[in-house]
Design a protein that fits this description.
The protein is mainly alpha-helical. The protein is globular, with a radius of gyration of 22 Å. The relative contact order is 0.21. It is built from 23 helices and 2 strands. Strands 1-2 form a two-stranded antiparallel sheet. The longest helix is centred in the middle third of the chain and has 42 residues, at 195-236.
Length: 521
Amino acid sequence: MKRLLAFAALVSATITVMSQSAIAQDTDGTFVDAVNDFMAPISEFVSGVIFFELSVISDMLPPIPFIVLWLLGGGIFFSFYMGFPNIRGFRQSIKIVKGTYDDPTDPGEVTHFQALTAAVSGTVGLGNIAGVAIAISIGGPGATFWMILAGLFGMTSKFVECTLGVKYREIDENGEVSGGPMYYLTKGLAARGLPNLGKVLAVVAAIFIIGGAYGAGAMFQVNQSSIQFTNELAALTGGENSLLFGRPWIFGVIFATAVGLVIIGGIRQITHVTEFLVPIMAVTYITASLVVIFGHIGDIPWAFGQIFSGAFTGDGVAGGIIGVLIQGLRRATFSNEAGLGSASIAHSAAKTREPVSEGLVALLEPFIDTVVICTITALVIILTGSVDPSASGTLAGIALTSKAFATVIYWFPYILTVAVVMFAFSTSITWFYYGQRSFLWLFGHNKSADLAFKVSYLMVLIVGSAMSLAPVMDMADALLLAIGFPNILGLFLLRKEVKAMMIDYFARIKSGEIKPYVAGE
C-alpha cells in the first residue's frame, strides 16, 4: 500500500510538472529567462562566497579557490596523521568488499559491496566524462597528474568520514539505518564536550546536502543527460521532425518515472539497482575507453610523458604551472567528493559491527572515481588530440569526449550516450537517498516529510530536464562543495577517535581476533 501511494504521488507530480515544462518550452524561453534573471544574482553571491580565491586576500597568493585547498588539505593532513591507511589498508579493503567478513547477522541494511556501489554511483557521473575533458583542455595534460594525486589523498578523507558514519549511525526498530555528517557531528562533538558546535555544524551540513541533492544530484544530471540523449535520438528519428526534437522534458518524465520506481523501495532497492548498474556502466565506459586508448597504443608512453612533464612545467597553459594545478585539483575535488561526508550516508547502512572496516571500503571510491576513471578519460582525450582550449561547460566536455570516441569507431558516441544516461541515473538515485536522510533528520522521520521530499525531488528532475538553469546549477555545485566546511572541521576535531579505532582494528586483524566469516561457526 505504501508503495502504491508513493507511486500515485509520483504520477501526480509527473503530470503536473510535465504540463509546466511543456508550457516553459512553448513560450520562447520567457519563463526560463525569468528564472535565470531571478537566480543569477543569488547564484553569483553564493558562488562568490564559497569559491572565493586566495588571491582576493593577497596578490602574492595563487588564484586557487579556498574550498579546494580546504578539502585537499584535509586529505593530506589525515593521510599523514593516520599513517596512510589509503595505502596500508588497500589490500584489506579489497578483502572486505569481496565479502570475506560479511556476516548476515551484523546490524545494517546492505552488504559492504552494495554500500560501495551506492556511494560510487553518487560520485561517478558526468564530471568524469565532461569535467575531465574541460580540465585537460584548459589545464593541459599535466592536470591529470594533480587529479590523481588529489584522488589518492582524498581516499583517507573518505576513510575518516565513513568510519565515523558507521560508529554514530542510528538504527530504528524496523532496522532502517540513518547516518552521515548530521549524526557524527552532533553525537561525536557532544561526546567531546562541544554539543552546541556539533548541532550548528550538523544543521549547516544537512541544508547543504539537501541543496546538493536537488541541484548536483537531480537537476544537473538530468539536464545534461537529457540534452545528450535527446540530440542523439532525434538525429536518428527524423531530425527536426522528430517528436523528441526540442522536447527534452519527454526524457525528463521517463527519467523521473524510472527514478521514482527505484526510490520507493528505499536504500535496499537503491543498492540492488546500483550493485547491478555500477559494474555494467563501469565496464561499458572503461571497455570503450580502452578500445580508444589501445587504438593509439604506440602513443601511450608519449601521453604519460605529457602528463608528467606538463604537471611541473605548465607550458602553453594560461597561468603556467599554477593554472595546471588549479584545473587538476578542482576536477578531482569536484569529482570524488572526498571530505564532504555525503558518502558516509550510504556507507552507514552497511552490515557491520566494525566502523573501521566500512571506512576501508569507502577509501576505494576516490581510487575508482579519480585514479581510474578520470585518468582513463584523460588518456582518451590526450591520445586522440581532442583538446580545445576554448571549450567550457559540461556539454562542451561531452562533445569533446564524444569526438574522441568517434576517432576510433564512428558509432562509439552512441555507447557514450548510454554511459552518460547510466551515470546520471545512478547519481540521481544515490543523491536522492543523501538528500532524503538529511531532510528527514531536519524535519523528522515521518511519512509526510518523506513523501514531500520524494515528490519534490521528482519534480525537480522533470523541471531540470526542460530548462537551462545555469545559475541554479552553479549555486547547487557551490552548496555541494560547501558541505566540506563543516565536515572537515568536524573530522579534524574527531581525528584522535578515528585513529584509535583504526589502530585497534588492525591490531585485532593481526592477532586473528577478527576472522573471515564462515557460515555455521
